[in-house]
Amino acid sequence: MTEKRIGLLGGSFNPAHGAHRSISLFARAALDLDEVWWLVSPGNPLKPVEGMAPLPARLARAQAVARRAPIRATAIETELGTRYTVDTLRALVRHYPRHRFLWLMGEDNLEQFGRWKNWRGIARIMPIAVIARPGYDGSTRGGAAMSWLRRFVRPARQSRNWTNWRPPALVLLRFRPDPRSATLLRQANPLWHREYMAKPVRDAVTRHYVEWPHHPSPPMKERI
């Protein structure tokens, strides 16, 4: 198997939209990635259960948004049986030893990063690339996590050489503001997921089909 340079972008993707795609393609170019994997989470404890569409619908929508791009939407956490991001990343490194992984996050997630389980452990597993988001620039730089991570920041001009970095390593990337958000999309169309109901959904990484739940909302699993 040929080694691939893969960026990992985690989230609820409720629903996935054009800004996810734009940020991923920007990161791919800036970091010289072969692919970006969208880790469509079974749930996020920092977001309300109410309004969370079923996992297969979110995965199907993500795959539709990622179509014809070097982006793979996956619900691999359900197969790995991992409960926290730190465990997911360890499992991916173990299952794909010939791939090189980098964790992608928006600056809004960096603001909450200090609340994630073993966030220092996450930083020690693989490099992190933080993509600027409008409205978060000042607060995230002063957060508890960033206070610790600041010593590991690498220059953005070296971002394409991230496979040579020894974690912890963090790079901050500037990206033009994109006003699109999942919240606005849900407000405009709260029943967006019905378009994908009952359709078989095949995971883009594992190639296995993702089962539809027998209840209206999927069980929530923690990402932090």
Describe the protein's topology.
Layout: E1 5-11, H1 18-31, E2 35-40, H2 55-65, E3 71-74, H3 76-80, H4 85-95, E4 100-106, H5 107-112, H6 119-125, E5 128-131, H7 137-141, H8 144-149, E6 153-154, E7 170-173, H9 182-188, E8 201-202, E9 209-210
Parallel strand pairs: 1-2, 1-4, 2-3, 4-5, 5-7, 6-7
Antiparallel strand pairs: 8-9
Task: Offer a concise description of the structure.
This protein has 224 residues and is α/β, with parallel strands linked by helices.
Class by SSE composition: alpha/beta
Counting DSSP H or I runs of 4 or more residues, the number of helices is 9
Number of strands: 9
Share of helix, binned: 25-40%
Biggest beta sheet summary: 7 strands, parallel
Strand content: 15-25%
Write the H/E string, N to C.
Answer: EHEHEHHEHHEHHEEHEE
Oligomer classification? single chain
Mean pLDDT figure: 89
Shape: globular
For the record, give the distance between the C-alpha atoms at the N and C termini, rounded to a whole number: 31 Å
What's the arrangement of strands in the largest beta sheet?
A: 3-2-1-4-5-7-6
Radius of gyration from the alpha-carbon trace, in angstroms:
17 Å
The low-confidence runs, each spanning 5 or more residues with pLDDT under 50, are: 215-220
